[in-house]
Design brief:
With 126 residues, this protein is mainly α. It contains five helices and two strands; from the N terminus they run ββααααα. The chain has a two-stranded antiparallel sheet with strand order 1-2. α1 runs parallel beside α3, α3 runs parallel beside α5 and α4 crosses α5. The protein is elongated and about 70 Å long. The N and C termini lie far apart (81 Å).
Length: 126
């Protein structure tokens, strides 16, 4: 029997079907309990609003995309995502991962700008 092929949710290329249970567990170990409960809640909300449930491939791709992000930014982004009722509007994990990565990059830019302006004298107000 030939192996079943799936589409990669991140890039759209064809990949062999693979079990991602152990990789997902490994990626989940780096997050706090609060972050994990919010991730699980977001996945549950997305699954409740869709007719097709998320697969392990989708969850693994999401965790891989937010892997380099700060945990505080992930928690803040997940809270904003759930408050805005985005899962009910049909916005899935790709939308959520974009929110997380954008918030993380804007935090890095803000931090860099603050560092660069630390040694400057503030402008004089007359």
């Amino acid at each position: 029997m030939p192996s079943r092929k799936e589409k990669c949710p991140t890039c759209g290329s064809t990949v062999k079907k693979q079990e991602y249970k152990s990789q997902i567990q490994t990626k989940r170990m780096r997050y706090s309990k609060e972050c994990l409960s919010l991730i699980d809640l977001a996945i549950k909300e997305i699954n409740a609003s869709r007719s097709i449930q998320l697969t392990d491939t989708d969850v693994h791709a999401f965790l891989s995309e937010i892997d380099r992000c700060d945990t505080d930014m992930i928690i803040m982004s997940l809270n904003n995502y759930l408050k805005s009722n985005a899962p009910r509007e049909g916005k899935g994990l790709r939308y959520l991962s974009a929110i997380v990565t954008n918030n993380n990059s804007s935090k890095a830019v803000r931090k860099r700008n603050e560092y660069l302006t630390m040694d400057r004298i503030p402008p004089r107000v007359d």
